[in-house]
Design goal:
Blueprint (H helix, E strand, L loop, with lengths): L1 E2 L10 H10 L4 E4 L6 H17 L3 E5 L2 H7 L3 E4 L6 H7 L4 E6 L2 H6 L4 E4 L16 H12 L3 E4 L7 H6 L4 E3 L2 H4 L4 H12 L3
Parallel strand pairs: 1-2, 2-3, 3-4, 4-5, 5-6, 6-7, 7-8
Helix pairs in contact: 1-2, 1-9, 2-3
Length: 197
């Protein structure tokens, strides 16, 4: 899953970069632009809904249940300070629900359909959550979660073997695709490695 950050695209239009990644085989996008107010966020969500729908990919919206509902997103992703999973299910009964966790116990306790666990490796976007968790903690989260766990934080083509060995069901990335000179090629490289999982 690609997690968006329009500040990581090198000045390129976010929806265009996402479209190129989708053309490279990206299966899912999470719109995560926390600093955008309602109307611009909705406009971006509508644009991403069009490009994901055209290519058969999933669209998730981070935190904003109203925006997810308005654009017919496939799901929402909740942070630790977000709405509860129960509230999200009540408002969006058909949606897939993801949640971010930073400890194995939180992965086990989460009632979401899937969780992001991290940061696994060092990355600027997750520095506020403390030092990297590493693959041993990722493996502990996978063992106890009872649901799919996606690794996030510093994930690139380099450490994917260690992430796979820890049992992660997949990965979530930001800069590995958004900052790439060719987002389609970067996506194809990641997808080709993940195809064997």
């Amino acid at each position: 899953m690609l997690v968006t950050d329009r500040h990581a695209t090198g000045g390129r239009e976010l929806a265009d970069v996402v479209a190129r990644a989708l053309d490279g085989g990206l299966p899912a996008v999470q719109l995560r632009e926390k600093d955008l107010p309602g109307r611009p966020l909705l406009a971006l969500a509508e644009r991403l809904r069009r490009v994901t729908a055209e290519r058969g990919a999933l669209l998730f919206v981070n935190d904003r249940l109203d925006v997810a509902r308005a654009v017919g997103a496939d799901g929402v992703h909740l942070g630790e300070e977000s709405f509860s999973v129960e509230v999200a299910r009540a408002l969006l009964p058909q949606a897939l629900i993801g949640a971010s966790v930073h400890a194995a116990a939180a992965a086990t306790a989460s009632r979401a359909d899937f969780v992001f666990f991290g940061p696994v490796f060092a990355t600027p976007s997750k520095a506020a959550f403390g030092p990297p968790q590493g693959t041993e903690r990722l493996a502990a989260a996978v063992r106890g979660a009872g649901k799919p766990v996606l690794a996030i934080g510093g994930i690139t083509a380099g450490p994917l073997d260690a992430v796979r060995a820890a049992g992660a069901h997949g990965i979530a990335v930001i800069r590995a695709i958004l900052a790439a000179g060719d987002p389609g090629a970067a996506t194809r490289a990641l997808v080709s490695v993940l195809r064997d999982w």
